[in-house]
């Protein structure tokens, strides 16, 4: 079934490839007379996920695109569009990662700094201020949004978070020694929650020059996100995700246990007081 696209002069000038993909999903669904809930049940996924795809707020993974293509009978046109979404500048990988993180079932992270989900506002401000002018309104807004994302731990079923933290993150002063002391105290408090685990990778052990996250979604789909200063990449292909999983496992094998990690944090806390 070949869907007829609107004429070029009917499209919003800001329309992206992701919007075109969402348009095809919506029109394909409507041709079959299905609601978003009915289409979601056939994948299966949540109705909200179909809404995100149709509105281009969070494009589908390749696997889900293939499912939608087959279910809607679109003969590979969605998959073809998906590859353009990934190649074009329309895809904001950091935004995609943060959106997926909010609904993830499990989150595994390796980080050279305290990861955003465990940062205090003062620590986040110190980290983020390195790239923006002092007193910037954008900085205040960014810090506020980062704090809001931590509300996922207040859900009835919070995600399982397992963090591998490089030891240097405990010793390098971000902002001030007071900021660092409060941040480490927050880490120790967070470790008391049954769904948050933190292990420290000793500075004497090898690590990679960047941070990354692994996400497992409620439907079992997995993704990875790697990040450096002012850059990032989002991965959904199983082979790429498996490669990041192997790196995580190797780092994990060198990390201290949770009790030893907590003791190292307490020692670092005393140095900042």
Explained architecture:
The chain is α/β, with parallel strands linked by helices and 273 residues long. Helices cover 49% and strands 14% of the residues. The chain has a 6-stranded mixed β-sheet, sandwiched between helices. A hairpin with a 2-residue loop joins strand 5 (222-228) and strand 6 (231-235). Residues 1-14 have low confidence and may be disordered.
- Strand percentage lies at 5-15%
Q: What is the string of helix and strand elements?
A: HHHHHHEHHEHHEEEEHH
Helical residue percent band? 40-55%
Integer average pLDDT: 86
Main features:
273 residues, alpha/beta, six-stranded mixed sheet, elongated, disordered N terminus
Break the fold down into its secondary structure elements and pairings.
Blueprint: H1 17-31, H2 36-42, H3 47-54, H4 62-72, H5 77-87, H6 93-103, E1 106-111, H7 121-128, H8 137-149, E2 160-166, H9 168-171, H10 177-190, E3 196-201, E4 211-216, E5 222-228, E6 231-235, H11 238-254, H12 258-272
Helix pairs in contact: 1-5, 2-3, 4-5, 7-8, 10-12
Please provide a brief summary of the model:
With 273 residues, this protein is an alpha/beta fold. The chain has helices spanning 17-31, 36-42, 47-54, 62-72, 77-87, 93-103, 121-128, 137-149, 168-171, 177-190, 238-254, 258-272, and strands spanning 106-111, 160-166, 196-201, 211-216, 222-228, 231-235.
